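Researcher: Go.
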Amino acid sequence: MAKYIKKEIADLNGKGTTQAYYRLKTWRKLDSEEFAERCHSLHPSFSKGLISGVLDAVVDQLAYEISNGFSVKINGLGTFSAKLGVRKDKEMDSFEEGSKKLNAKSIEVTGISLRVDKKLIREIDRNCDLERGEEERLQTSKLTLEERIEKARQYLKKNGFMRVNDYAILTGLSYSTASRELRRLASDPTSGITSQGRRSSKLYILQA
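Model: Structure:
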């Protein structure tokens, strides 16, 4: 029996109300060995060892084909293809005249895109016997936006820089809400707050 969780999220449409979305509760993660054992139980004509070997062969072949510029479609599962990005120690380039151009060594595979086969989605839905689980409410701040901004400014005057987690603790917001709000503030010149760095190394500072 699977359970669904109703989760409250922040206002994304500018109407001033929160929204709800639903996600499936994950009991735990099955590792490759247990997954192969379960496949063997469902299809006993294939040994667990054979299933494990085929899974390993599929992974190896996927890596080889995708690394050579192919996307791979596996019927009933989906289509796999590579995602590229700039290495963390390199700056993004542009098409501006005179800008520094990156070479091939500056680009790396940053992920895999999987476009799931609709047949798999239908099969999961057909087998999914849902029951209601818990609700996850949004952690909100008791401070107004203006009060949160002022607290952030005072913190920055004292400490010089601020991370998302600092802002979350300072304001009482959840980490994800604090991250979204800081991004909005950094893009608003009137807030007095800007950012530097990227991803996990991103810092928020006062505008010069």
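Model: The radius of gyration is 24 Å.
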